[in-house]
Amino acid sequence: MEIYTDLKDIKAPFPHAHVTIGNFDGVHLGHKVLFDTVVERARVHKGTSVAVTFSPHPLKVLSPNGIRLISTTNQKIELIEKSGIDVLVIIPFSREVAAVTAMDFLDHVLIDTIGMQYLVVGYDYALGKGRQGNITFLKEQGEKKGFPVQVVEAQYVGGEIVSSSKIRELVAAGRMRDVHKLLGRFYQIRGLVQPGHQRGRKLGFPTANLCISEEDLCPKTGVYVTQVLYGGKQYGGISNIGYNPTFGQNKLIAETHIFDFNADIYGRPLKINLLRHLRAEIAFDGPDSLIRQISKDIAVAHKVLAKAREKKLIAHHS
Q1: Helix 164-172 vs helix 176-183: angle between axes, to the nearest 10 degrees?
Q2: Residue 130 gets which letter from DSSP?
Q3: pLDDT at residue 247, rounded to an integer
Q4: What are phi and psi of 265, to 5 degrees?
Q5: What is the set of active-site residues?
């Protein structure tokens, strides 16, 4: 997949460009339908499949405290690449870009620069200043300027609409099995392993610690069954996401005990898939009661992981 992060780097329009445009936060099952449609149409017409998105997310600029994102830009790139898209155009978003009219964006960016000949959008998409470029506008302009517009209707799973806002709500509630259904994969947190206080090691359950920014989408605090991805291998684990009330901590951290693992990974990148929320984070009266509860959590986690392997949701071997 070719990636462009500056429109000036696009030296000529892409051949027979079939385009989809959106924020694609989370790259959920609804977005996947958009990508599959564009890829298939472009293949049939021997064209180029192009996805256009923005970074940062427009609401991060226009309403900084108004949104917490499901995926980072890097995650979004990885997931879009897996969909088979030929070209990804990431437009740097700013208040200046927000002020561009729908007509100007359509003419100068999508048609003149990218060479759009076919457009696929979601049912609720609108572009340009004040969201002027709604579906009606796009279809009218498509008829005038010669690009067909295909609108992909809302997608539902088990009666639940697939949307980024719904997924954010489910993540915040710790409903990871429902999140999996709408994302088509597990919700993932990632980051570099930070040095901790070595408390887990002293308790007999060493942990890898990731700091979570409270500006990001924070899962419900508590203990989770997790799948840990490190060095091209997969491991089971349990993670405590929270403030560690037993030890009076006030920083939001994901502390993960990785099963059958013993390596120094400070400063290394770690990806953690959240399979199931087991229990709330609670303060214990001391280390002994905490150790007993962790042992119970691990026993339950092994059962959850075994079921996930049976259903082929995770791999059988590390």
Answers
A1: 160
A2: G
A3: 42
A4: -120, 20
A5: 255
